[in-house]
Write a structure and sequence with these properties.
2 copies of one chain form a homodimer. The first copy, chain A, folds into 2 domains: 147 residues, Ribonuclease III domain (Ribonuclease iii, N-terminal Endonuclease Domain, Chain A), CATH 1.10.1520.10; 69 residues, Double Stranded RNA Binding Domain. In chain A, 60% of the residues lie in helices and 12% in strands. In chain A, strands 1-2-3 form a 3-stranded antiparallel sheet. In chain A, strand 1 and strand 2 form a beta hairpin. In chain A, helix 3 packs across helix 4. Chain A is elongated, with a radius of gyration of 19 Å. Chain A starts with a helix and ends with a helix. Chains A and B meet through helix 3 and helix 4 of A and helix 3 and helix 4 of B. Chains A, B: Its EC number is 3.1.26.3.
Chain lengths: 224, 224
C-alpha cells in the first residue's frame, strides 16, 4: 500500500492542482503505459537549468569548467537519489510486480528518475517560478555544502570573517524550532545581528547544518 | 570593425536594457577576462531546457529516448552554429588577435558558444518568458523540420513540398555511380535543381535510398 502522494507534495511545498500529474510522476514504467518516463525527460532538463542558474549566481568568480563540475556533482544519480530518500519518495512509488519484488523502491536509478519526473510534474502544474522555489528548497543544503566546499570555508566562518573585517559584532545563533519525526528531526535556526536589526533563518537535519544554512542566508542578505 | 550589437538584438527580437550583457555574450575568451564563458554555461542549460519543453509539448506520443535524440540533434554544435550564421552573429563577435587571424568568426564552436552566451544574456536581462519567446522564434523552423521528420514524411516528399510551396521546379534524380561488390552495391545519386544551379549527392545500398539521401542533402542546402 502506497503512502498518500499529497504528503509528498506537502514535503515539497507545492499542493498540486492536477494530482494526476503527481501520480504519473510517481509511476515507474514497470507499472504500465501511464508512467513517468516523459516527465523525467522534462524534469531532468529543468533541474539542469535551475541548478546551473543557482550556481551561476552563487559563484560569480567560478569559471565555466568549475560550474559544470559543481552541477554534475549536484544532479548526478546518487545525489538525486539521496534527495529522494530525504523525501521518503520510495514510499509513494508505483512499481510493477517485478520491481516491487526486487526492491525497486530503494534503487538509486528509480528514485532519481522519479524525483526528476515529480519536479517535471510540478512545472507543468504550476510553472517556472513555483518550480524554482521548490527546486531551490530541495537543493538548499546541497548548494550550501557546495559553497562551503568551493571556498574551503563554511558559511559560519565566512560570515564571521565578513563581520570582523567590517568591525561589526558577531551573530547569535538560536534554535527556534525543532520539527519532523523523532528519528528525522528538522532544526530551524535564526542567525541574529541584533544591533543591525538583521535576522536570517536556516533549516537542516542537525543543529550544525541549520546554523550553517542560517549563516549562508545572512551572508546573502548582507552581501546584497 | 564590428557591427553594432543592437542590430543583432533586433534580429533576436529583444532590445537589451543592459547592453553590457549583450556585449559580454559576444566576447570570446581570446579577447580578455570579460568574456562569454560563464554566460555560455547558463545559456547552454537554458536552451537545453526550453527545447526539451518544446519537444515535450509537440510530440505527446514520443518516448523519452526519441525526445532525447531529437533534442541532441537540435542543440548540437553544428545546429547552433547554423542558427548563429543565420543571425550573422560572426559579424558582432569580439575576438582576440589570434582568433581573428585564424578565422574564428566563422568557426562552429565559437559561433555556437556565442549564441548560447547571448541567449544567457537575454535571460539575465529579461527573464524566463521573454527568453522563451526569443528561443522559440529562433528554433521555429528547426522544430518544424523535426516535426516533419518525425511525422514520417520522407526527404523526397519534404523536398517536393518545399519546392512546390515556393513554386520552384521539381528536381531530377540521376544515378551517377554504382560501386561496391555485385552483391553489395553502393549507389550514388545526384539531386539536381538545374535552373537554380544546385546539386546535392546521396549514397545508399539501393537507388531509392540514395535518392532519399540526396533529397535530404538538398533540403539541408536550400534550408540554409
Amino acid at each position: 500500500m502506497n503512502a498518500d502522494p499529497r504528503r509528498l507534495a506537502l514535503a515539497l511545498g507545492h499542493a498540486f492542482k492536477r494530482e494526476d500529474l503527481l501520480e504519473q510522476g510517481l509511476t515507474h514504467r514497470s507499472a504500465g503505459a501511464f508512467n513517468n518516463e516523459r516527465l523525467e525527460f522534462l524534469g531532468d532538463a529543468l533541474i539542469g537549468f535551475m541548478i546551473a542558474e543557482a550556481l551561476w549566481e552563487r559563484f560569480p568568480e567560478a569559471d565555466e569548467g568549475t560550474l559544470s563540475r559543481m552541477r554534475a556533482s549536484l544532479v548526478k544519480r546518487e545525489s538525486l537519489a539521496g534527495l529522494a530518500r530525504g523525501l521518503r519518495l520510495g514510499d509513494y512509488l508505483r512499481l510493477g510486480a517485478g520491481e516491487l519484488r526486487t526492491g525497486g523502491h530503494a534503487r538509486d536509478s528509480i528514485l532519481a528518475d522519479a524525483l526528476e519526473a515529480v519536479l517535471g510534474a510540478v512545472y507543468l502544474d504550476a510553472g517556472f517560478a513555483v518550480t524554482q522555489t521548490v527546486v531551490m528548497g530541495l537543493f538548499a543544503e546541497r548548494l550550501d555544502d557546495t559553497s562551503a566546499a568551493q571556498s574551503g570555508k563554511d558559511p559560519k566562518t565566512r560570515l564571521q570573517e565578513w563581520l570582523q573585517s567590517r568591525k561589526w559584532p558577531l551573530p547569535d545563533y538560536v534554535v527556534t524550532e525543532i520539527g519532523g519525526d523523532q528519528h528525522d528531526q528538522i532544526f530551524t535556526v535564526s542567525c541574529l545581528l541584533t544591533d543591525r536589526n538583521l535576522c536570517a533563518f536556516g533549516t537542516g537535519s542537525s543543529r550544525r547544518r541549520a546554523e550553517q544554512s542560517a549563516a549562508q542566508a545572512m551572508l546573502e542578505q548582507i552581501e546584497k
